Amino acid sequence: xxxxxxxxxxxxxxxxxxxxxxLVGIGRAIEVIPGMDDNTILHAGPPISWDRxxxxxxxxxxxxxxxxxxxxSYKDAVKLxxxxxxxxxxxxxxxxxxxxxxxxxPSMPVFIxxxxxxxxxxxxxxxxxxxxxxxxxxxxxxVIERLKWMEKTLYPALKEALKxxxxxxxxxxxxxxxxxxxxxxxxxxxTSLFLSEIISLLLCTTLEKKVINDVxxxxxxxxxxxxxxxxxxxxxxxxxxAGIEYSTIVTAMARNGVEFGIRISSxxxxxxxxxxxxxxxxxxxxxxxxxxxxxxxDSTITETAGLGGFAMAAAPAIVQFTGGSPKDALNATRExxxxxxxxxxxxxxxxxDFRGTPxxxxxxxxxETGITPRINTGIAHKEPGIGQIGAGLVxxxxxxxxKAIKRYVEKTGV
Amino acid sequence: xxxxxxxxxxxxxxxxxxxxxxLVGIGRAIEVIPGMDDNTILHAGPPISWDRxxxxxxxxxxxxxxxxxxxxSYKDAVKLxxxxxxxxxxxxxxxxxxxxxxxxxPSMPVFIxxxxxxxxxxxxxxxxxxxxxxxxxxxxxxVIERLKWMEKTLYPALKEALKxxxxxxxxxxxxxxxxxxxxxxxxxxxTSLFLSEIISLLLCTTLEKKVINDVxxxxxxxxxxxxxxxxxxxxxxxxxxAGIEYSTIVTAMARNGVEFGIRISSxxxxxxxxxxxxxxxxxxxxxxxxxxxxxxxDSTITETAGLGGFAMAAAPAIVQFTGGSPKDALNATRExxxxxxxxxxxxxxxxxDFRGTPxxxxxxxxxETGITPRINTGIAHKEPGIGQIGAGLVxxxxxxxxKAIKRYVEKTGV
Lengths: 414, 414
What we know:
Two copies of one chain form a homodimer.
Chain A: H1 2-18, E1 21-28, H2 29-32, E2 40-43, H3 55-67, H4 74-83, E3 87-90, E4 109-115, E5 121-125, H5 141-164, E6 167-168, H6 169-177, H7 188-202, H8 209-220, H9 227-238, E7 250-256, E8 259-264, E9 272-275, E10 280-283, E11 296-297, H10 301-304, H11 319-322, H12 326-336, E12 340-349, E13 355-361, H13 363-369, E14 374-380, E15 388-395, H14 398-412
Parallel strand pairs in A: 2-3
Antiparallel strand pairs in A: 1-4, 1-6, 4-5, 7-8, 7-11, 8-9, 10-15, 12-13, 14-15
Helix pairs in contact in A: 3-4, 3-5, 5-7, 5-8, 6-7, 7-8, 13-14
């Protein structure tokens, strides 16, 4: 039996190593995301009903309904959300991932990532920046205005550019790991490299220089821009690990701000959940842990694919943003080797003698060692309407893994 | 006396720490470099006459004379060089630095860096790329053509862009040190950050999109582009340390391919020289140490200002280009603390707990400890006309420091 598991896990991680994620285009959510319709709103994490959602998720959904022209105020939006007219579904159920609240509404433009090796696609909205932004639960006029600018200016420009050529995201991530990013909470280098690629394409379009410059300034002004490309890149790879009989590899980790959920390759679409933990981190001036919402977002797809907390050793500078020391960063990656089945040679870390990032979290190893996956994360205010208040570190709760192994035993009879 | 020296050295390094180097413009060498005229050609390192120059320097000078339209072939150029009509002078004598052969001829466009704190300027040509390029001694038709393209397209475009705004180079270097560069032999991040800055300016000019795209592609295609900005940045800072009575700080290290020379703050313009050492490194396919020219170039100005070999710990990925291990990279920076008088808080290294790069090489400490400055470098073929064949590591020869301390004792009577 152990051989069967090992073989299954080997197949799973080989798929991630062979993946070739590429940015192929950009489209409106309703037009490109499978199963999306006018009354669907996607959110981060495992399934959750409106009444159980956390503050920032309610805020972001209200914002999305205002953005869509379906509500005029938070109160209005809450009424509509409560009416049952809107379906709330996890991003993960639609080949999509979203940072923090992960809210995707029908008109929002989304990146289309194709895993060229296998042909599957993954989707993600565009990153708005830090602070008072929709994904952290803010919904004020300026938030909506920014989203409208992104829809009317940024989206059509990038769409034109991507008609000219695709962008190899695996290569950007590989380079960024040699440039101090871990591609979850630090995307400074990846954003800069992406900007170099997209600018060459933008300059080949018929767009006016003024428009191109607005786009350049927006991307340049947001060092987290690449997060929303890193995430669907990882989703397009991780999805290929799913559905392999006997495999104990974790194929998704995601949080809705109330629960943390994981999925296991051989256990289908089931989520194994536990209460979302509270991140430890650094807060923006004026905020503290008492303002913080529990852990939130699909961005843990990066850790699932061997980046983020698993690639911390590549990004010692991140500790200024998340807390901890550079030595902790090295040790975080080393520790994650204990619970993974391989290393990704395409994603190497110079400071660890160019060894690859630990890849393929093995449910069995997590339970055996008692070591849970390390995660870098942003921190949202627990009330709707405020936004990001910090960034920090957290671990996936052991309870998810315990529930999963119980089901695995039930299913396989081991 | 020791107090006088300490005080003098403190003043010297404070000047480097307070410096604010900014890219203010770009101009033709003859129009902006002080003391340049139609018959002057500048070269790297301490002074050297034509007959004693190494192969690559002769090749680069021949290339420059062809580029200037003063010769049609290498043979022609040699004849002119031998005639005595051309004056050969060190870049360093004209507030200028040049990588490898460092050749600057009158029509070449040069960056103008201003140290805003003190008002002094430094100059450097634009980087052509790797391999078969003038600065490594190549002079074939394609080399000259590229230089002409740089003069006719790249130069006027950048000139227009820089009329709109200056670019803060200290900030770019500070960021790049958090992104895996040491800003001598690895400038991947700094080049990407510079590109982000210049593109925003280019898009505000009246230049055609096609021209802007050609410029973007050229810069993007050459990860060493920023070297020729890092060097004059360092020159503009290091020059401020010169001429302080009693100071034993090294204000320049430079090689002409035959000799390695240093200058000391309190010892005026005198060069203290020793035979240029042979770098140890990694060679491009088909070449080996027997093809290599001894150490060459003014790029050691980066080490003089606390970057390059002194900031190795920031750039573990560089060992793929220069040889050595990531641990060696950490230790290189640690070792350089032994021979410097301060650390530069603006240039911090995450992996060393954000301590600043070792700054201000003290002649006394070098002689006392027997530890000589570490240098990252490119390797040129020893014959003219070939170009770069590798990159590696080298140390400044102790003999220079011994000569300098002898003169220091003579002068001060200590």
